[in-house]
Amino acid sequence: MSHLADKTIAVVGGGIGGLTAALAFARHGAKVFVYEQAAEIAEVGAGLQLTPNGARALAALGMQHAVMALNEERGALGLVANAVQPMDGVSGRAVARFDLTRQDPRYRFVHRSELITRLLSQCLDAGATLKTNSRVDGDLPQADLVVGADGVKSVLRPMLNGSAEPRFTGQVAWRAMISAEHPPEARIWMLPGRHVVTYPLSHGRVNIVAVQERAEWAEEGWHQPDAPANLQAAFRDASAELQAILAAVETTHLWGLFLHDVAPIWHNEEMVLLGDAAHPTLPFLAQGANLAIEDAYVLVRRLSENWDTGLATYVAERKPRVTRAIAAANANARNYHLKGLQRRAAHLALGGLGAIAPDAFLNRMSWLYGFDVTA
User: Fold this and answer.
1) CA-to-CA distance for 331 and 328, rounded, in angstroms?
2) Cα separation, 372 vs 116, whole angstroms
3) Which of 169, 249, 284, 308 has a beta carbon 3.0–4.6 Å from 332's, enabling a disulfide?
4) 312 DSSP assignment
């Protein structure tokens, strides 16, 4: 018998983490309300990489077919990924290729709006109530528990931890999407002081995230428009193939990349944090959405087992894992941008690893991709 059947849960934030939590609570019989400040729940213009660790939790919540189906199957979510391919962004040469075809469930490329639409539909079918145009600021909703899934600019996090200023990393990122063909792999185009990640999405689209080291900071957030010419100028010495991809960009957004500490306090008796509200991460490990999905599953599972101790158990279980993932993302930020002899040596080592031990990359990442919150 779940300890949640008689509980009322207020989820603040209608993003991926919030909707996953809402779905999990509703599946356990709780009365769930999702508070979203926007007029409608919509994520546009961005892709994400749904890795096996995140997909396992979604499968356990009733989305088995969506995250297990192949591209051509009706109801499949996004596209199945075949490989991760580090590229020399200057010469255009493939440095290595790491196969993903033996992952179970498969690594996928998904448009955010596609995943959010699926999650919202499942939430409503499970009995959750959506409240749009609902800004939570100051007074909390009446509920047995309020879940803060309101992102990097969370209004609930300061209620538990006070205010804290993030630290600019000295890097900015552009995000864009174009219509083009792209092989079913994530390509990481590495240049001195910069990199670009490209991968395909459904309906013939390519997702682009480009990062540049620079002293001039930009506002944190995804919605600040910038001129495509600025993005193209930052990579004017890139390979012809990468320049052609960037030349097709007609609309782009720029945001500053900031470091946030993992929140020291994640909960009290009336509220709890998850996802970016608790532990924002840089976009260099493709784990922001996946960690939020994991958080949501573990939170609800532990509370369903024991309402009195569930919050503390959730934090004890999640904090070490997300701290490790954030450290790995920070390391990638450095490794993608190497210069000079250090860059050449790293590329040779990476190429040798791919040729001699093609499974070494996945073995090294097994702590991340092989993790199963449902076990």
Assistant:
1) 5
2) 22
3) 284
4) H
pLDDT in tens for each of the 375 residues of the chain?
578 999 999 999 999 999 999 999 999 999 999 999 888 876 555 899 999 999 999 999 999 999 999 888 888 999 999 999 999 999 999 999 999 999 999 999 999 999 999 999 999 999 999 998 888 887 899 999 999 999 999 999 999 999 999 999 999 999 999 999 999 999 999 999 999 999 999 999 999 999 999 987 777 777 789 999 999 999 999 999 999 999 999 999 999 999 999 999 999 999 999 999 999 999 999 999 999 999 999 999 999 999 999 999 999 999 999 999 999 999 888 889 989 989 999 898 888 877 777 787 778 899 999 999 999
Neighbours of 168 (CB within 10 A): 16
CA 233 to mean position of chain CA atoms: 27
- 336 part of the active site: no
331 Cβ contact partners less than 8 Å away, ≥ 6 residues apart:
none
129-131 β-sheet, strand order: 129-131, 31-35, 8-12, 145-148, 271-273
The helix or strand, by DSSP H or E, that contains position 216, with its residue range, turns out to be: none
| Alpha-carbon gap, residue 177 to 270, rounded angstroms | 40
Does the pTM surpass 0.85? The reply is yes
| DSSP conformation letters of 87-122 | EETTT--B---EE-TT-SSPPEEEEHHHHHHHHHHH
| Alpha-carbon dihedral angle through residues 208, 209, 215, 218, given to the nearest 10 degrees | 90
Instruction: Specify the amino acid at residue 168.
Output: F
Which one of the listed residues 107, 199, 336, 369 is annotated catalytic? 199
Identify the three-state secondary structure at position 164. coil
CB distance 109 to 207 below 8 Å:
yes
Dist CA 313 CA 196 (whole Å): 38
Beta-carbon contacts of 34 under 8 Å, excluding residues fewer than 6 positions away, are 11, 13, 14, 18, 19, 22, 123, 128, 129, 130, 131
Q: What is the 3-state secondary structure (H, E, C) of 15-77?
A: CHHHHHHHHHHHHCCCEEEEECCCCCCCCCCCEEEECHHHHHHHHHHHHHHHHHCCCCCCCCC
